Amino acid sequence: MNAKLPEIRRASLVDRIDMLARTAIWRVLAFFGSSHLRYRGSFADVAEAAAAVRPGTLVGYDHDAVVMHAFDMMCQINLEDYPVLFWLSQIGDDAQVLLDAGGHMGTKFRAFRQHLDLVRKLEWIVYDVPSIVRAGQQRAIEEGLSGIRFVDTLIALPRIDVLLASGLLQYLDIPFGDLLRQLQALPRHLLLNKVQTREGPTVVTLENFGCAEVPYQIRNLPQFLASLDELGYDIVDQWTVPALSRTIPTHRYLGASTCWGCYARLRSGEKVDTVEPHRRQIAANDMIPRAADEAGND
Description:
By secondary structure, this protein is an alpha/beta fold. The protein has helices at residues 5-33, 46-51, 71-74, 82-91, 107-112, 118-121, 130-143, 176-181, 221-231; strands at residues 39-43, 58-59, 97-101, 123-127, 148-151, 162-166, 189-198, 203-208, 212-220, 233-240, 258-266.
C-alpha cells in the first residue's frame, strides 16, 4: 500500500499542474479576448469588479442597450420556476401584494399568469433599475397588460406580503437585508430562486452581456442562510438547479457554483413545518439547454 503513495502523489501533482496550466491559458485568453468569455475574473466586491470592466464597455445593468437582452427567453416558464409556482399557489389568500424584486420587464408575471390567477389574487409590483422600469412601463402600455406596475424605488410602497427574487441576488449591489429594510415591514413570505452560491468565501466575477459587463456575485451559502435567520426567517423549502451551476473560466480552481432557491417564512413564534432540503432537486438532464448558456438569464 505504501508503495502506491508516490504514484498517488505524482498523479495529484500532475492534476494540479494541469489545472494551473488551464487556468493560465484562460487568463491569457481573458486578457487578449475577454469579450468571448461569459464570466471572467475574481474580485473582492462589486466596486472592484466594476472598476475592471473592459474599456469602452458599459458597466452594469442600467442601460437602454441591455434592456431587451434575453427578454423573450425570460418570459418563458422553465423547469426551475416550478417550485416558485408551487409555493405561490400555496400562499394563496394569505397575500395581497407581491414585490418582484429584479423582475425585469415583468418576465415572471408574463410567464406565470397563465398558470395562476395573478390579477385577481395579487397586486404585482416589479422593482428594477430605471432603464428597465421605463421599458417595462412602455411595453405594458403597448400590450395592454394589466395587473402589474413598475417602480424604481421602494419608497411609499404598500405593505409587501411576498417578495419574489428570481435571479436578482447575483446582481444586487447591497446586502439583501438592506434591501428588505427599505420596505415598510419585512415581507411574511420570501421566494428566492436562481441564487448562485458556494461553500467558500463570496466571490464577485464579471458577466459578459456583449455591450456591457455586469458584476456577478456568487454568495457564501452558510453566511447567507445565517443572514436570513438573523432577519427572522425560517426556511420552509429549498432546492437546487444543477444545470444552472456556474464556473468562472479564468478561475476554475474556485470550483462550480450551486444554483439554489428557497421558500422562507417570517418567524412569528409558531412552529414552521419544513420540507427536507434533499427532497427537491431540479433535474439537470431535464433542463432546457439554453438556460445554462444565455447571459442574464439567471
